[in-house]
Specification:
Layout lengths: L7 E5 L1 H15 L3 E4 L1 H5 L3 H8 L5 E6 L2 H8 L7 E3 L7 H7 L4 E3 L2 H5 L7 E4 L11 H13 L3 E5 L11 H16 L8 E3 L3 H7 L32 E13 L4 E2 L5 E2 L4 E6 L16 E4 L2 E6 L7 E4 L10 E5 L6 H7 L4 H6 L5 E5 L4
Parallel strand pairs: 1-17, 2-3, 3-4, 5-6, 6-7, 7-8
Antiparallel strand pairs: 1-9, 9-12, 9-16, 10-11, 12-15, 13-14, 13-16, 14-15
Helix pairs in contact: 7-8
Organism: Deinococcus aquaticus
Family: Belongs to the alanine racemase family.
Keywords: Isomerase, Pyridoxal phosphate
Length: about 350
């Protein structure tokens, strides 16, 4: 049976990904654990892992759920996979057998590990989300070291991407105090703390063996940090024109009649909508690129489709429409129109959008 083409595509630029990883490794002075949680921030876990596994600066991958860990480990890249959130007791032996590095934040979690597990001590230095508080983490780390299971230790910055870095420095002080209290391990302890914001704002952190830049690896950073490393967005999203028609003057387009044609208006329907991750909240503000021109999205964005003004353009069904790209119209613009952030738009790109290695612009 022939494979039918997708109406929407996320084009992944491998050169942009490689460039971002190299720039962030140079800035941090360490190899990277690349987060590929949430389907690699919407870019496609399988595709991103296969591309990044060949990069010399990538130590391994980080995921948020046991199923993500299983999927990443099944790709057999030879790079370690770190689970960032606690597994259930029943999941521990399965993940350990796959070689997944496990987070540990309590003596009970340490006791549940099999002898062949490799653990990363999770220290809560002020994020107050997961991990052992510093006064508890040392005891957990000592027990893991006693059993020969302690491979790494990590924490997570809460505000390292903010202009005021005072709390980030305090978190780092707390983490280093825990590291200083841990015993020597047969192999150097893999300590890691820096997310993308910390890599860009703090640079090299003495005593850290790895860094974990997330969104920055995919090409995004707050405006005040962009000068610290050359980053390029990795994803371009396109969808196909599915229908062309003329809306008579005075008639409306889409649900609620929010847009009314001031004249007879050529309109193209495009095969992407909010079920595919394009934010419905961008209604009334969004623009796209079609036939080389920016054109407005007309009326309310639908679940599976949206409509655009193609006045004066030569457009045919099947022609590509760019929803966001690397430079001229970025996901930052789309997020602003939708009243949200790049993280939410990227991770919301749905399964109907086919991920491809492809030329982007």
């Amino acid at each position: 049976m022939s494979v039918l083409a997708s109406r929407a595509r996320a084009l992944i630029d491998p050169d942009a990904l490689r460039g971002n990883l190299g720039a962030l490794a140079a800035r941090s002075g360490t190899p990277l654990i690349l987060p590929v949680k949430a389907n690699a921030y919407g870019h496609g876990l399988n595709l991103i892992v296969s591309l990044a596994a060949a990069h010399p600066d990538v130590w391994g991958f980080a995921v948020a759920t046991p199923r993500e860990a299983q999927a990443a480990a099944a790709l057999n890249t030879g790079r370690p996979v770190l689970l960032l959130t606690p597994p259930t007791p029943a999941e521990v032996p399965v993940l350990a057998d796959l070689g997944v590095r496990l987070p540990v934040a309590s003596l009970a979690e340490a006791a549940a590990l099999p002898a062949h597990a490799r653990a990363h001590l999770k220290v809560d230095t002020g994020m107050n989300r997961l991990g052992a508080r510093p006064e508890e983490a040392v005891a957990v780390g000592l027990e893991l070291a006693r059993r020969g299971l302690l491979e790494g230790a990590y924490t997570h910055f809460a505000s390292a991407d903010e202009p005021d870095l005072g709390f980030a420095h305090e978190q780092l002080r707390r983490f280093r105090a825990v590291l200083d209290a841990l015993p020597p391990t047969p192999q150097p302890l893999l300590a890691h703390a820096a997310n993308g914001g910390a890599v860009l704002s703090l640079g090299r952190l003495p005593g850290m063996a790895l860094a974990r830049p997330g969104l920055a690896a995919y090409g995004f950073a707050p405006p005040h940090l962009r000068a610290h490393a050359p980053l390029t967005p990795v994803m371009t999203v396109q969808a196909s024109v599915t229908h062309l028609h003329t809306v008579p003057a005075g008639e409306t387009v889409s649900y609620g009649g929010l847009w009314r044609a001031p004249r007879d208006t050529p309109v193209a329907t495009v095969g992407i909508g909010y079920a595919d991750g394009y934010p419905r909240g961008a209604t009334g503000r969004a623009e796209v690129i079609v036939a080389g021109q920016r054109r407005p999205v007309l009326g309310r964005i639908c679940m599976d489709q949206l409509m655009i003004d193609v006045t004066g353009l030569t457009v045919q069904p099947g022609d590509p429409v760019t929803l966001w790209t690397q430079r001229e119209l970025t996901v930052t613009d789309v997020a602003a129109w939708g009243g949200t952030v790049e993280y939410e738009v990227l991770t919301g790109v749905g399964e109907r959008v086919e991920r491809q290695v492809g030329e982007t612009s």
